[in-house]
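ingest -> validate -> predict -> emit
validate: passed (alphabet ok, no gaps, 58 aa)
predict: started
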Amino acid sequence: MLIVTPMSPTEAARTVGCHQNSIYAALLSGELKGYQRTAPKGRWRIFPDDLAKWLKGE
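emit:
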């Protein structure tokens, strides 16, 4: 069984080499899929597969 751990916007930004504000902007616009456990002010979490799709422009 493969367990995939979601990452924070800061971790996602470090992974792809951009600023975390770019990640937040993509999340808020809906361009990047992510979730908040307690919206609207909860911490964002991003699954690696969703980050990879965003990078590919999907």
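Residues 9-56 form one domain.
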